[in-house]
Q: What sequence folds into this?
């Protein structure tokens, strides 16, 4: 396998090429570009950096950033916590009211199971003082 020399690699990057765009019907040259591999590499790298920069700017400087999971302001987090506490307290109050209404319904319909107290009471005997 041939080892590439740094000098030949640099020469290959600087070799000039011509890119010609022609009209297929008339064979007229529409546009001609003189390019090298290095210029194409630099142009594509610059385009990539520009697109990444524009994407980052779009996210940072517009409200799009709020759609990123985990990103938000402290105000929104505080409001979320307050709403969660309010929901929990309302949920507990609703459960207590449902239990109370259930108990009332059982009392009014007579479905309350009653246990009769049948244990004997031990009363002390009265002493007579004569």
A:
């Amino acid at each position: 396998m041939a080892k590439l020399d740094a000098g030949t690699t640099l020469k290959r990057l600087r070799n000039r090429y011509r890119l010609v765009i022609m009209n297929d019907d008339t064979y007229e040259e529409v546009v001609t570009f003189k390019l090298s591999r290095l210029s194409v590499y630099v142009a594509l790298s610059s385009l990539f950096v520009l697109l990444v920069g524009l994407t980052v700017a779009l996210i940072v400087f517009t409200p799009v950033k709020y759609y990123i999971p985990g990103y938000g302001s402290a105000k929104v987090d505080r409001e979320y916590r307050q709403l969660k506490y309010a929901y929990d307290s309302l949920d507990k109050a609703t459960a207590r009211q449902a239990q109370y209404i259930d108990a009332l319904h059982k009392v009014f319909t007579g479905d309350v199971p009653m246990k009769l107290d049948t244990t004997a009471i031990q009363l002390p005997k009265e002493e007579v003082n004569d």
Q: What stands out?
A: Helices lie at 6-14, 37-61, 74-109.
